[in-house]
């Protein structure tokens, strides 16, 4: 990891000033070109010298940031990788699939019904029968080793005592669980903003399960917030926010970090952050995924009529 390439970026938008808060972004995406953001931590348990001899296998969608980073890690660490991909193979391989193949990842596309059974022992056995022994990394790296590795994110945060709220994009909740369990006695409150449009109690259960699976107790001091849009969906507001951030030198990915920023914006507009709050938003990487959504962003953004409350 290139820790000296991580930096803080101040988001000097009038909306924050109007509500009396400051927002900085911790550019963890700069940790590495390919194994960036939270992936640098989540995949660390398999990095040399702990890289196993047998292939690393994991799951994800065709545009999965996790599979992309795993393929890059496998190529760099000299271990073969398998990506079990949700859904039919696209008629022509898009940029992400091309990347995975170029980095040497072997792909197996499975229908959504079978994908839902990916955690079942019978499915694992059928995979073994087809491809031999492998080291399984659960979808999104949501396993104890990755969660514990995410505790180390704290050591990349400058001015540890300064932050009132730490905002983190959430998928499986593994990264957030690592941050929660690594928080220690710091006063910083954690806010996980999900890419999923499910209920807050369901999100809370996900995080508690991740903590329990990693053998960590729940010290409290955290909240979760669902996405306002279903997973992967985009609308004019998000597309405009994406373009505004990019124009100001903050590239975000539409599935995770853009939603985290949007969720924060909603909170602030609802007056839910006390005046004087110092907010730190983690940039968890995933920028490769932008390529899959750029055309839609460019189509949706000009059609957006509403005011952009920035
Ligand atoms: C860029 C980015 N940020 C955040 C997340 C969410 O991470 P987690 O699954 O640990 O909640 C992901 C998911 O893989 C991601 O790709």
From TrEMBL:
Molecular function as annotated in GO: D-cysteine desulfhydrase activity
Origin: domain of life: Bacteria
Keywords, ordered alphabetically: Pyridoxal phosphate
Gene3D superfamilies in alphabetical order: 3.40.50.1100
Cofactor(s) the record lists: pyridoxal 5'-phosphate
Active site as annotated: 64 (nucleophile)
Residues spanning the membrane: none
Residues where N6-(pyridoxal phosphate)lysine is found: 39
InterPro entries (alphabetical): ACCD_DCysDesulf, TrpB-like_PALP_sf
Family: Belongs to the ACC deaminase/D-cysteine desulfhydrase family.
Protein's UniProt name: Pyridoxal-phosphate dependent enzyme
Organism: Nitrincola tapanii
């Amino acid at each position: 990891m290139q820790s000296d390439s991580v930096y803080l970026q101040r988001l000097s938008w009038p909306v924050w000033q109007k509500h009396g808060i400051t927002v900085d972004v911790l550019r963890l995406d700069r940790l590495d070109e390919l194994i960036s953001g939270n992936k640098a931590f989540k995949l660390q348990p398999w990095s040399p010298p702990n890289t196993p001899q047998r292939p690393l296998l994991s799951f994800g969608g065709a545009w999965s940031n996790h599979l992309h980073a795993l393929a890059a890690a496998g190529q760099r660490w000299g271990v073969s990788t398998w990506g079990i991909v949700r859904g039919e193979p696209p008629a022509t391989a898009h940029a992400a699939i091309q990347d995975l193949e170029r980095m040497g990842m072997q792909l197996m596309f499975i229908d959504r019904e079978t994908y839902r059974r990916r955690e079942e022992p019978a499915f694992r056995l059928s995979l073994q029968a087809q491809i031999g022994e492998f080291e399984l990394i659960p979808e999104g790296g949501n396993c104890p080793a990755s969660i514990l590795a995410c505790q180390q994110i704290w050591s990349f945060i400058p001015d540890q005592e300064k932050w009132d709220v730490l905002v983190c994009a959430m998928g499986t909740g593994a990264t957030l669980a690592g941050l929660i369990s690594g928080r220690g006695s710091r006063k910083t409150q954690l806010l996980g903003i999900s890419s999923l449009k499910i209920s807050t109690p369901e999100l809370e259960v996900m995080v508690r399960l991740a903590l329990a699976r990693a053998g960590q107790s729940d010290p409290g001091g955290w909240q979760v917030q669902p996405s306002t849009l279903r997973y992967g969906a985009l609308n004019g507001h998000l597309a405009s926010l994406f373009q505004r951030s990019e124009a100001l030198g903050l590239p975000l990915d539409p599935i995770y970090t853009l939603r985290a920023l949007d969720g924060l914006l909603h909170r602030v507009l609802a007056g839910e952050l006390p005046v004087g709050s110092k907010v730190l938003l983690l940039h968890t990487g995933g920028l490769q995924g932008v390529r899959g959504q750029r055309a839609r962003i460019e189509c949706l953004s000009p059609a957006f009529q509403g005011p952009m409350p920035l």
